[in-house]
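U., I forgot to send this yesterday:
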Amino acid sequence: MSGSLSTPTALSSEVLKAAELAARHAPDADLAGRLPDGVVDALVAAGFARHFVPTRWGGRAGGFEELLDAVAAVGEGCTSAAWIAAVTSGAARMGACLPEDGQRELWSGGADSLVVGALVPAGRATAVDGGWRLTGEWPLVSGVDFADWAMVCASAPDTVRFFAVPRRDYRVRETWRNVGMRATASNTLLMEGVFVPAHRCVIREDIWAGRAVGSRAPCHTAPLRAVSGTLFAAPALGAARAAVRAWSARIAGRPAAGPVAPRDDPAVLAVLARAEGEIESAGLLLRRAARVADTGVGGTGGFGSEEVLARGARDCALAAEQLVGAVEGLFRSAGAGAQALTDPLQRVWRDVHCVASHTALRFETAGGAYGGRLLRGATS
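Result:
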């Protein structure tokens, strides 16, 4: 996209390689319902798995802005691959809140261990000697087919907790047959009476609040609601940029059906101008949220104000709406040919709608919370 107002961070050669490979395999992965192992390996080689891993375990303790750019770059070729890159990075970040011994075990195989997250407390945990006995079924666990570990949420007698569970201790049931984001393999994770030692458990509120153990890096001390929207929306940002390219190639090559060719029709070109403006606006909102998370704005001792946190959630949800609007406008104006299952524009259209339906990107919730703060400020 030309004329960008945002300043992207530099992308490593490994990220660019992963993006290119993911793009090449995107049509087949969409049909197969999972990413090829080679694409997953490329994402790991690009550093997504270790991005938020604490440095003492060999990770990078990296920033949100650079991750936003890297995920969006992958998303320009394959939204599903970008989603896996984002959510596995985010799940590893949660591991930094485990007790020291739990972190040591989680990354005993190296900082590139692939971690997935099951955020809904769909399981139940019973206290036993030395730890917990865990049972449940967690649906919609993106990347569970590829993972080495899972951070799963469950209700315990005292509170809701997260548990780190290795791949050998859970089963996967194939249940993901969705209209969009098909290659994420967001299947169901199952456990029955699995023992989890106490050092692999953390209270959910500690993850929500960014109470990391042994690290003061901003990426670990940022509250979850300050950063989750950025991670979830980043794949759609890249996908929307891909939609601009696909639409432009289609319109540029379309012959004239009347006195004016589509590429010279102001009404047609206005669709492109609006879409690029909406995508650019969304990118700026996401970049602001990422930069706030990277600066720390006080860390755990006071991560900014509640207003800043609410604004960040609003920004990410609004960005998601703008990206959906941009892709929707392009898709509707592209003609019946773009609806063919072989056309990349229809895949992007499906994927972006799927991404934007995530609860973390629901504008009614995020916008309502921020709007309430604005109103109270205006009338106080």
